[in-house]
Structure formats: structure tokens, C-alpha cells
Design goal:
UDP N-Acetylglucosamine Acyltransferase, domain 1, 11-stranded mixed β-sheet, Spore Coat Polysaccharide Biosynthesis Protein SpsA, Chain A, alpha/beta, 22% helix, 5-stranded mixed β-sheet
């Protein structure tokens, strides 16, 4: 069986989380969709937006280059499927149930099982590649399909929502791997290079486990309230509070008060300040004292606006913080208002009272915003990579330039590099 994961026409609605990575590489509860799909027996292939093709080929060697024409069935999976254990269980069952049945079987906008020979034939008739045609299938088959209760990521806040809902069950599944040893009731350390836990550390696992992976460093007087996952090689600063559904990727430095947050690998928030009900991409650095709001003064539900069209999005959620794109930075004592999006490659100073476009120097609190050229981010990327002993590749540099071009419509017309002066 082929497993073909495709990004459909709505994937850009997840920006800034989906700007620097495929939607199937967004983390919730310590897992990405690609991690779940890798557990299903089959030939795994990904169709992504063209500008991501090089970086995906370099970073995901487990993916096959093309679908197997000899496989009887191709399972087409929408990349916006939320990476939850519940979705994985349903997807696995769907694959078993429909894999050898009718030529085509649908499950709403989530998955489609289709005979491989039929997929090749129809794609050829449509004058497109198999990947291009598969990406259109969810739009073509949307109307009148049964609700199979797959949870999807339709808008940025859905990432936070899915994470909050799935964190406990995802971590409970992680513990079934046998790779962890129990330190205390509900507290688990990696068997390989377990973290040293200071005696002053306090754990509350009444609402979910605390899982600390290989080679982590935990500072003294830290408070953990599960569910919490700390990825390999990450560091938690002293006097930190990490609680209520937190997923930290590998090689991160985190500190202060962190609640209901997803952090992708290689990002830093190691100083004091509050970060709540938020999503951080990779290679982000939040300056000391950076705080975000995740609750309106009225205690009402949060409304957001998209980065591109600035259309209003009703989240229906009371707690929504910020979503910050890869390579973004904040200065010391930056304040981010409720439900705001910070674009990739941006640098924020003072107060972020509105969404921040990608590749800008943003200081709206003093009435200034300037263009941040991709060359500056490439140079910064090289310095950051060097500090983490990561090789800067041509595809990493090219991704910065490609993202700059594709986010041009987020920025005001006429923005120049000399519009921000202190």
C-alpha cells in the first residue's frame, strides 16, 4: 500500500506555523503527523508545496521519492490531519477497512483510499502529476461526505486546541515504547542518558505524565505540572514553571512560566516571562521579559485575524496566546497581545498589538516598521546554526529567500529597510 500525504489548497491558512514546514511536520503533544504515518505499514510519499521540496528531501530521508505503481491501494492523507493518537487509531483502522475494497472510499476531507491504477489514470487524464491531482481530491470530494470525526487543522488556533486535547493520550502512547523509566509516580525519564533531577524539583502529575527525554538538563527549583514533554537535549532554566500541556522539541532552552505551549526544535525562551496557549516554530529566540496574553479582559472567546487576508476568525476558545513563525525574534520586555500571529523572520520590539507580517522589523508601539531583507535572516541563521553545531546548507538559505517571496503580500506596500531607526 502507498501512503501519500498531500498538502491541499487550504494549507496556507495555518501560517505562520505552515510557512517554513509542511503541515504534516507541525507538532501537537510531542508528535507530528509524519511520525504517526511512519507507523503504518506502507510506502510513504509526501507531496508538498514546491518551495519546500528541497528541505523535505534533505530532512526526511525516510520518505520514498515516488509512489509504488505496483501497490494495489494508495491511501491519500490530508497533511492538515491533526497529529493526535485518536486520529492515528482511526486512520489505521480506515486503512485496514478500505485498503482492499472499493476502487475509491472517502473519509471526508481527511483520507481517501483509492486503487493505485485508478489514481495514475485519472491524474493523467487531468493533465497533472499524481501528487498534484491528489492534493485536489479533498476539494473535489468534500460535498456530501460522511463525518468520520477526524480532527483537522483548519486555522492557526486549531494547532493549540488539538495540542491541548491530545497531549495526555499522545504522551501515554509514547510511554508504551518502553524507552522510559519511572522516576516517581507519573514522572518518566529516558533510559538512555537520563536527565539529572535536582531534589528541589516539584512534580504534579495528577492531570497527566511528565516525560523528560534523553540528555535534558533541569535547573533547580523547577515546577512541572503534567502533561509535559521535554524533548532530547533540551534545557529548563532554574525557577521555571512548566505546566498544563507543554510539548518542547529537541535542543531547546526554556524558562519562566510556560503553560499550554508547543515549541518546535531549536527555539529559545530561557529567561523570565509568561508564554501561554501558544505555538513556537523553530529557531526562535524570545528576549528576557517577553510575555504574551492568552485571555481577554472580558473573559470572552478570542477572535483572530489571518496573516494574509486579515480575515476575522472566531476561535470559540477562551484561551489563545500567540503563534510565532520560524526565525522570529523578540526584544527584551516585548508584550504580545491575545491571539496574535508573528510571521517568519520577523523581529519584534515593544508591544505587538496587531499581527506581525513576515520579514519585518516591527516597533508599532513607537510607530515604526521596516523591511527585514532575507540576507539578514540568512546571516543570522548561519550564526545560530553555528552555535548549535548545525551545518548551514544551501537548501536552508534558499528556504529563507523563498519564504520572503511567498510572504510579500503580508507586508505593506512601499516598506523599506530604512524605516526603523532608534
Amino acid at each position: 500500500m502507498n501512503i501519500l500525504v498531500v498538502e491541499d489548497a487550504l494549507v496556507n491558512r495555518l501560517a505562520p506555523a505552515s510557512t517554513a514546514r509542511p503541515a504534516w511536520a507541525i507538532t501537537c503533544g510531542s508528535y507530528r503527523l509524519i511520525d504517526w504515518l511512519s507507523r503504518i505499514d506502507g510506502n510513504l510519499v509526501a507531496h508538498v508545496r514546491p518551495f519546500l521540496a528541497q528541505i523535505v528531501a534533505a530532512d526526511f530521508p525516510q520518505l520514498a521519492s515516488e509512489i509504488d505503481s505496483n501497490a494495489e491501494t494508495t491511501l491519500v492523507v490530508n497533511a492538515r490531519l491533526a497529529p493526535t493518537f485518536s486520529n492515528f487509531a482511526k486512520l489505521n483502522e480506515f486503512a485496514k477497512t478500505y485498503g482492499q475494497s472499493a476502487p475509491q472510499a472517502h473519509a471526508g476531507q481527511a483520507v481517501i483510499a483509492i486503487k493505485t491504477e485508478t489514481l495514475f489514470r485519472v491524474a493523467k487524464e487531468a493533465g497533472s502529476t499524481v501528487g498534484e491531482y491528489a492534493a485536489k481530491l479533498f476539494t473535489l470530494t468534500e460535498a456530501g461526505l460522511p463525518d468520520t470525526s477526524f480532527q483537522m487543522l483548519d486555522n492557526p488556533h486549531d494547532i493549540v486546541d488539538a495540542h491541548m486535547q491530545c497531549c495526555v493520550e499522545n504522551l501515554e502512547f509514547r510511554l508504551t515504547s518502553g524507552e522510559y523509566q519511572q522516576l516517581a509516580d507519573g514522572v518518566y525519564l529516558s533510559k538512555k542518558s537520563p536527565a539529572t533531577i535536582p531534589d528541589s524539583t516539584v512534580f504534579d502529575c495528577s492531570e497527566g505524565p511528565v516525560v523528560i527525554d534523553t540528555g535534558c538538563k533541569i535547573g533547580p527549583f523547577t515546577y512541572f505540572r503534567g502533561p509535559v514533554y521535554v524533548g532530547p537535549g533540551s534545557k529548563i532554566s532554574e525557577h521555571s514553571s512548566v505546566k498544563d500541556a507543554v510539548s518542547i522539541g529537541h535542543t531547546c532552552k526554556m524558562g519562566g512560566e510556560i503553560e499550554g505551549v508547543v515549541v518546535e526544535p531549536y527555539s529559545n525562551k530561557q529567561h523570565y516571562g509568561f508564554l501561554g496557549h501558544s505555538y513556537l516554530g523553530s529557531w526562535i529566540n524570545l528576549g528576557a521579559g517577553t510575555c504574551n496574553s492568552d485571555l481577554k479582559n472580558t473573559y470572552g472567546t478570542v477572535n483572530m485575524r489571518s496573516l494574509k487576508e486579515q480575515e476575522k476568525i472566531a476561535t470559540g476558545m477562551q484561551f489563545v496566546g500567540c503563534l510565532i513563525g520560524d526565525y522570529a525574534k523578540t526584544a527584551i520586555n516585548t508584550s504580545i497581545f491575545t491571539g496574535k500571529l508573528i510571521g517568519v523572520g520577523s523581529m519584534v520590539y515593544g508591544m505587538a498589538t496587531t499581527n506581525v507580517p513576515s520579514f519585518v522589523n516591527y516597533a508599532r508601539s513607537i510607530g515604526q516598521m521596516g523591511l527585514l531583507p532575507p540576507e539578514v535572516i540568512v546571516t543570522t541563521q548561519g550564526r545560530m546554526f553555528g552555535r548549535r553545531k548545525v551545518q548551514q546548507r544551501q537548501c536552508d538559505c534558499q528556504l529563507i529567500h523563498d519564504m520572503f517571496q511567498m510572504t510579500d503580500d503580508q507586508r505593506p506596500d512601499g516598506l523599506t529597510t530604512d524605516q526603523l531607526e532608534f
